[in-house]
Amino acid sequence: MTKHPQTVVLDGCKLEEARRRLQDGTDRALQATLEVLTREADTWLTQGPWSVTMKRTLGPSGDVHDYVSQAPYWWPSDSPDGKPYVQYDGKKNPEVLNYTDRVYWEKVFNSSTILTLAWLYTGNEAYAIHAGNILRVWFIAPETRMNPNLNHAQLIPHANTGRCIGIIDFSQAYTSVLDAAAILASGGVGSSGHLRAPGWSFADVEGFRAWNVEFLEWLTNSPFGQEERSQRNNHGNFAAMQMTAIAFFLGDAARARAEVLRVRASLSETIASDGSQPEELRRTRSWHYSTFNLLALTRLACLGRKVGVDLWAFVGPGEKGSIARAVDFLIPAATGSQAWAFPELCFKAYAAADIIRAAADAGHEGAREVVGRIQLPTRDLWVLRPAPEQLDAVQP
């Protein structure tokens, strides 16, 4: 039995340290955060599991096991038949709810993450059993599993049957699911001494691993996967972060390291010398997308440390490509010392909170100086899952 969970993005040692502090019982603030976590976990106990086979509308392939979603920012035109669809960046079309896979998938990753963390810290087996069942139904059970591809994600009606950028439906959150599965497989911490979490069998471990082998193959070799990975914006960085995490989860540290190095070589095309992210500033929701892209890069930096690559300290040619400077660029608006000077339909200062805290943990002096002054979300779980997460709850 290991002394700490063998997690992917999350730091297993920090999770174990938090567990010990909770057992000690003297840290009231940490205990209060645990109560927030377990209240949310209790709500998930009465929900799910979910499956792509529960969809109301079949996708283009006609296979109920294929994941399907609709592009969120595309709307019917003013023509009588609504064709062609037109884009309104940042404005979400409610039609997307006709494809329920995206809705169910969000529930899968939120519930499995929260339930697994709740089990880790409390040892309540009901949490682990339900988390395992949620993952088993979505990824493993033959009658309900999702096919390991995203061929029909973010389709545009009357225009295509899916797009490469639909990969972000998974890449923005899938690494949290990998951490949940890693915790369930590590087992033992905070429980009664199982080699794996109760309800998560060796067959489940192998089944989930096999799904990820196939999914990584599709991400690597499909035209959509290759095109998405080549993007020089949040899409490309999330795709790279997802592929790095899956490779690391599967035990291929060399492949994970190579992907981190590939991204590092392209950071100068993503982050300007002043720390701005030009591709994200062009959006109608420039604050959201600036924090969103940096979320992918800071999570990748967490992975980088595990494979011996320090992205936090990197500065590319012409002083471009610095994640640290990108954090500096966000700090004035995050602390309220300056207004955000770019287009933003719904500014939420706390969207940068985890990014700044991750930077502070990595030794960024500017982040350390302001970490006590940043706005935090109402539901703040940082001390129990200390890795940057998307906090503004806006789907890209």
Give structural notes.
With 396 residues, this protein is mainly α. The strands form 2 sheets. A two-stranded parallel sheet has the order 1-4. Mean pLDDT is 95; it is low at 189-194. The chain has 2 domains: 1-69 and 101-230, Glycosyltransferase (Alpha/alpha barrel); 268-396, no CATH class. Helix 12 crosses helix 13 (323-335). The chain has helices at residues 12-24, 28-44, 101-122, 125-140, 168-171, 174-186, 202-221, 223-229, 234-249, 253-266, 278-281, 286-306, 323-335, 353-361, 365-370, and strands spanning 68-70, 74-75, 86-87, 152-155. It is 49% helix and 3% strand.
Average pLDDT over all residues = 95
The proportion of strand residues reads: under 5%
Largest sheet: 2 strands, parallel
* CATH topology tier name of the largest domain: Glycosyltransferase
* Helix content, binned percent: 40-55%
Order of helices and strands: HHEEEHHEHHHHHHHHHHH
Named CATH architecture of the largest domain: Alpha/alpha barrel
Task: Specify the number of helices.
Answer: 15
* Shape estimate: globular
| Low-confidence parts | 189-194
Give the helix/strand class: mainly alpha
DSSP, total strands: 4
CATH homology-level superfamily of the largest domain: Chondroitin AC/alginate lyase
Please give the CATH class of the largest domain.
Mainly Alpha
Question: How large is the radius of gyration?
Answer: 21 Å
Number of domains: 2
- End-to-end Cα distance: 40 Å
GO cellular component, one term: periplasmic space
GO molecular function: lyase activity
InterPro entries: Alginate_lyase_dom, Chondroitin_lyas
Protein name: Alginate lyase domain-containing protein
